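Why does residue order matter? Because the sequence determines the fold. Keep that principle in mind as you read this record.
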Amino acid sequence: MQHNFLKIHPRDNVLVALHDLKAQSEIRSNGTVFSLKESIRAKHKFSAQHLNVGDTIFMYGGMVGKACEPISPGEALTVDNVAHQTEDFGKRIPNLSWNKPDVSKFKSRTFDGYHRSDGQVGTGNYWVVIPLVFCENRNVSVMKDAFLEELGFVRPNKYKHYVRQLVSNFQEQAHSMEKPYVLEEELTVSPIFDNLDGIKFLTHQGGCGGTRQDAEMLCALIAGYLNNPNVAGGTILSLGCQNAQISILEERLRKFHPHFNKPLYIFEQQQEGKEEDLLTKAIAQTFQGLVVANNLKRQPATLDKLTIGLECGGSDGFSGISANPAVGHVSDVLVALGGKTILAEFPELCGVEQQLIDRCTQDDIAKKFTHLIRTYSTLAEAVGSGFDMNPSPGNIKDGLITDAMKSAGAAKKGGTSPITDVLDYAEYVKNPGLNLLCTPGNDVESTTALAGSGANIILFTTGLGTPTGNPIAPVIKISSNTDLAKRMPDIVDVDAGGIITGNKSIGQMGEALMEHIIAVASGKMKTKAQLLNQDDFIPWKRGISL
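Structure:
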């Protein structure tokens, strides 16, 4: 059934417009009747009662702001009359009661994955080429140009043909540009290696010239990518004199896996001498590694072998009531099956800290979360910012006017299960269940970290649209509303807008999403980000990004 507005939680004193509402429209909620003071756009909130200056605004059952001027029933909440405010948090008060979802439909299901010797199972089979320092970016790019087209891992660029049309028409028609142009569809290319999903060339701007901490975290992140079950092996290019030393990378790899045995080739330019010597050796050994990686074939694996990263970006006022809860249902299902999920983006957990602390299974886990989020918040404030400045102009325009409001909806991606571990940036997931990972709210820095911590699938909710992808972990994009899914079908994989219209329940949407995950994990379906070759990789320079 289509409704005009929604009260998310019985405690809430604001309502959400589910579509555009006209001024003077009559609102009936919980026995009270009032008229809208002004037109309310879909996704935005309006007050359900009279609020005085300083009164608390509740949404999702928690504090998401305070009134900074009187607000009448039926009046829109804006950045002018509402300010960010959250509840304080402290000692853990255990709240581990959990109503597990019915998982009978998925208990005997499997996906076809790549089984690694350490027991992990990949949803893909990739080779990675990564520099330890930005000085090697050019050499990585040279290798990329040498490999991709020859191996059939890159589709022809249809825009090159488009430019040829423009040039031809410009020359033929004496500078006239009136002739219409049509983009040709991309040709399909058959890869040389049937069992290899791709070779990924990652570049970055780190490794030297910054803090030693950033160099160490970069090495830990790269080690996480090499250890990720979606990676068959890797080639590392080092200059030699940089902060991010080979020894640090090797130490981190041993920490993740004492008996790491994937093919790994490391080349140091200052030792090899000429660039040509470096590149010919690196290319030859990398090719041999691809041959070895191609020997592995997909085999059935139970769903507890999935490690799913939980992410959002370009969020809107519907994200917290459609796409995010649907992802939260998936998280609960996977946790109940014995799998792992990872909820990232600490600036977007602002205001729900106590709820998460109380869901931690042990005091030391709760204390680690408290320490990490307080430290991060303090560092942000020290550079003149703060978590309260996290919402972007797009977030605000589409109804997320405080960080606490945004965070309360973002946290829904983590479902309701107990929290079994808290990971600092670049720590690798080890415990089944829901894990919290300290990352920025920046989409790409966060998805980069999720893959580095072991995610072999990433669920990414969006209300405004974003093309974000990842080189090694398939990113499944879930739209919060059907308008977005129709407007940007080339980036949206799953439309959760049926929850807004009342055509689907959160549970039904979650189950449909599970089926999509199994298809992607088995290699039977590519995500839109994969089809676009959207290989985003941005390491976090800690204390700088928010």
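DSSP finds 16 helices and 22 strands in the chain.
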